[in-house]
Design a protein that fits this description.
Layout (H helix, E strand, L loop, with lengths): L10 E8 L2 H10 L10 H6 L9 H16 L4 E9 L8 E12 L2 E10 L2 E11 L6
Antiparallel strand pairs: 1-3, 2-5, 3-4, 4-5
Length: 135
């Protein structure tokens, strides 16, 4: 990515994230979220969902990966705000997309979403410093 060629309204490339049980369980364990709906299918079904589902911290990590993969190794996320919607269940694919909403002095504001077959799993905004804060 060439930072001098960024413009408000530019779309970020999409990223497809296949959702599988291992990813859901390992993300929950790694973030110390031991709620049984993230690792026990029977417990998730008893709670009214068809299967285990992704926790918010795993989603946050995937969004962070999406943004920094696009922005480059020197970039740092300064602020991120997100909201969960439709759950991510195993067997689905979340497609991440984004758009530049502001750009000034090496800091990019991005609006993003991650959509699955049920709708938007995550929506939000982020502020990304393309220089990692070094000035």
């Amino acid at each position: 990515m060439n930072a001098t060629e960024l413009n408000v309204g530019d779309a970020l490339p999409t990223l497809d994230i296949p959702i599988n049980p291992r990813q859901i369980v390992s993300g929950a364990i790694a973030s110390q979220d031991f709620e049984n709906v993230h690792h026990d299918k029977a417990a998730a079904q008893a709670a009214g969902t068809p299967d285990i589902f992704m926790n918010i911290l795993t989603t946050n990590g995937i969004v962070g990966r999406y943004l920094t993969d696009w922005a480059g190794a020197e970039a740092r996320i300064k602020r991120i705000q997100l909201r969960l919607g439709a759950p991510n269940f195993p067997g689905d694919t979340m497609v991440l997309s984004g758009e530049i909403t502001a750009y000034e002095e090496g800091v990019v504001e991005v609006s993003f979403k991650g959509k699955n077959a049920m709708g938007n799993h995550v929506t939000g905004t982020a502020s990304v410093d393309l220089n990692g804060g070094a000035r």
